[in-house]
């Protein structure tokens, strides 16, 4: 018997790429379970699929930085902390954080296939005996509109968003007087392609870093939150500094006001997404 659940959840995370650095991503998860009927004449109760399997995904990869095991990034897991130092395409990225902020995925790169294999290893052993196999499909949101990949960290967040490098693939809508502006949507999606969005108040001097070393052309960030102490440095070319937190509400408001300065005679509306099917709207 086969049980399927489409759009079980969405994985919002970042991954370390040899060419692109930290890439924010959002994948919709479709799940298929193969097995025998249990005493309830079910393969598995839908409520348990949604709750139990989603919890496993949340605990293993969601809102983390995924690092491929074969990537030479000087990865160090020691004493409850994780750190790495990596150079890619002439750019630099380093981080130190509580070890729960990272997951290591077997393989040379992070893609749908490697993450599917990783998730299957995590999920199948925790299924009841009547579930013999699982299939997982990961897919981005289908769209003909413009989107960008971004990573960030939210130190004031009570949950896993406080992890300093996690991210999303996000659509962006920009409107003047109620009319969509595809040119500006494309412009901002290109400007923020594979970007790290940093908060100005989290900037520190390089000498204040405790666990990693920055290069002269880097920005350095650090903060303490409920999960512990986080710090990172990144090439300035791969980062944009916002004068506010990088919640989706603040991103939408920042973009609306930034665009308004160039087009003061227009009513500007920004519809900013955080991953799939959620986001914020701001006007200026």
TrEMBL record:
Pathway listed: Purine metabolism; 7-cyano-7-deazaguanine biosynthesis
Its EC number(s): 4.1.2.50
InterPro entries (alphabetical): 6-PTP_synth/QueD, 6-PTP_synth/QueD_sf
Reactions catalysed according to its record: 7,8-dihydroneopterin 3'-triphosphate + H2O = 6-carboxy-5,6,7,8-tetrahydropterin + triphosphate + acetaldehyde + 2 H(+)
Transmembrane segments: none
Top-rank taxon: Bacteria
Family recorded in the similarity comment: Belongs to the PTPS family. QueD subfamily.
Protein name as catalogued: 6-carboxy-5,6,7,8-tetrahydropterin synthase
Species for this entry: Pseudoalteromonas obscura
């Amino acid at each position: 018997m086969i049980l399927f659940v489409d759009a079980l959840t969405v994985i919002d995370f970042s991954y370390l790429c040899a060419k692109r650095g930290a890439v924010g991503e959002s994948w919709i998860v479709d799940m298929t379970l193969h097995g025998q009927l249990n005493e309830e004449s079910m393969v598995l109760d839908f409520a348990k699929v949604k709750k139990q399997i989603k919890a496993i995904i949340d605990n293993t990869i969601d809102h983390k930085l995924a690092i491929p095991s074969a990537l030479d990034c000087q990865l160090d897991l020691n004493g409850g902390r994780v750190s790495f130092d990596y150079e890619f395409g002439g750019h630099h990225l380093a981080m130190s954080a509580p070890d729960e902020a990272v997951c290591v995925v077997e393989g040379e790169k992070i893609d749908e296939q490697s993450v599917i294999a990783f998730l299957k290893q995590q999920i199948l052993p925790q299924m009841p005996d009547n579930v013999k196999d699982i299939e997982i499909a990961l897919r981005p949101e289908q769209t003909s509109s413009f989107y960008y990949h971004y990573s960030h960290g939210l130190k004031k967040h009570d949950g896993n968003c406080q992890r300093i490098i996690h991210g999303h693939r996000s659509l962006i809508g920009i409107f003047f007087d109620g009319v969509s502006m595809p040119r500006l949507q494309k412009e901002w999606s290109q400007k923020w392609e594979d970007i790290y969005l940093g908060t100005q108040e989290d900037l520190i001097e390089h000498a204040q870093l405790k666990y990693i070393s920055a290069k002269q052309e880097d920005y350095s960030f650090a903060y303490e939150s409920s999960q512990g102490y986080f710090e990172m440095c990144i090439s300035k070319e791969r980062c944009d500094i916002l004068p506010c937190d990088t919640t989706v509400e603040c991103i939408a408001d920042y973009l609306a006001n930034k665009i308004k300065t160039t087009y003061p005679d227009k009513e500007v509306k920004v519809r900013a997404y955080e991953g799939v099917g959620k986001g914020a709207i701001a006007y200026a």
